[in-house]
């Protein structure tokens, strides 16, 4: 999702603090935002901050381009693409997403549930569990009964949040797959320590088969495309959002940086396929809140409505990549790619 980092915040009464600003607008983008939705580095920045200068310079270069390719889908990111086209004025914006393996967009469950090495080849990472073992575990669970939890490759929640999340998961009684990395206070590279979770948590989850705890990496595409996966607790990074929605999996949002808060805002307010649990690794998170949100999203009428909306979005994403045998009926992404290639070759 494209979000302008060139924000024009209201004048502050106290130049050292943004506390008095309740909301602001991003130029040419509908609606309002709150300072709390900004990453900390932007919340505490001013026009002289080095990374703000860097962002402004990069944005200036971007606006000088002849056009823009976006890993998005025309029918999904309607408001954001309209805003981007307003910013780009008469220059073309081509939607060429989602950048996913074709077998995941064919709407065929037999293809979806096959074991693939695509995830590993895309990430270039070594998995903490094999795709075969992961799918074998998922096959033991009922459809839409498993919560998948991952905060991406570069982000982490803090130690207190991690402890409360584990307690909330156990209280909810829901089955889950959790990709574990060290809390944000620690270096992300070392081995995960059991002391960062409640005492005996690993043993209890293994014994009950309720939780599959995976260190380092997991085959995310295979997990999201499996029929047993019912929801995704995510940092709302854009790649993860597209992967989840392409499989009709709704989301519990926990953005941790960058544009992720705005992605979470869009998922909840525009698409109605997400509920936000927390924002960043500064929020206080309690196990009872975790339990409540999980039950809301995995059970009941609210969860069912989000699941239905996510299924409709998955169908739209699949249709965007569709082309009939004669080449006459083309989805929006196929048309956009064709227009981009025609534009490039004509020049």
TrEMBL record:
Keywords: Transferase. The keyword Zinc-finger does not apply. It comes from the Eukaryota. GO terms for molecular function: UDP-glycosyltransferase activity. PANTHER family: UDP-GLYCOSYLTRANSFERASE 72B1, UDP-GLYCOSYLTRANSFERASE 92A1-LIKE. Belongs to the UDP-glycosyltransferase family. This is Uncharacterized protein. It comes from Papaver atlanticum. The lineage of its organism: Eukaryota, Viridiplantae, Streptophyta, Embryophyta, Tracheophyta.
């Amino acid at each position: 999702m494209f979000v302008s980092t060139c924000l024009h915040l209201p004048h502050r009464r106290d130049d050292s603090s943004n506390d008095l600003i309740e909301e602001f607008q991003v130029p040419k983008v509908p609606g309002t935002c709150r300072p709390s939705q900004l990453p900390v580095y932007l919340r505490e920045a001013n026009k002289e901050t080095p990374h703000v200068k860097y962002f402004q310079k990069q944005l200036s270069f971007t606006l000088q381009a002849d056009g823009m390719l976006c890993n998005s889908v025309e029918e999904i990111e309607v408001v954001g693409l309209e805003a981007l086209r307003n910013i780009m004025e008469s220059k073309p914006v081509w939607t060429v997403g989602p950048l996913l393996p074709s077998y995941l967009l064919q709407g065929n469950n037999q293809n979806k549930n096959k074991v693939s090495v695509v995830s590993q080849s895309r990430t270039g990472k070594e998995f903490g569990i094999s795709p075969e073992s992961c799918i074998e575990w998922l096959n033991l669970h009922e459809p839409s009964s498993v919560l998948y939890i991952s905060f991406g490759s570069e982000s982490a929640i803090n130690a207190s949040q991690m402890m409360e999340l584990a307690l909330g998961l156990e209280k909810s009684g829901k089955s889950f797959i959790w990709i574990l990395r060290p809390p944000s206070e620690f270096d992300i590279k070392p081995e995960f320590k059991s002391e960062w979770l409640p005492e005996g948590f690993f043993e209890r989850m293994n014994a009950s088969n309720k939780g599959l705890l995976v260190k380092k990496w997991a085959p995310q595409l295979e997990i999201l495309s499996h029929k047993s996966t019912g929801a995704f607790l995510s940092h709302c990074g854009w790649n993860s959002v597209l992967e989840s929605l392409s499989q009709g999996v709704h989301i519990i949002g926990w953005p941790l940086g960058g544009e992720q808060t705005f992605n979470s805002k869009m998922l909840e307010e525009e698409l109605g396929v997400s509920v936000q649990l927390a924002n960043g690794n500064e929020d206080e998170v309690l196990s009872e809140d975790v339990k409540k949100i999980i039950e809301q999203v995995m059970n009941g009428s609210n969860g069912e409505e989000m699941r239905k909306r996510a299924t409709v979005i998955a169908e739209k994403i699949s249709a965007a990549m569709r082309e009939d045998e004669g080449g006459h009926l083309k989805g929006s992404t196929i048309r956009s790619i064709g227009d981009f290639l025609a534009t490039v070759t004509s020049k």
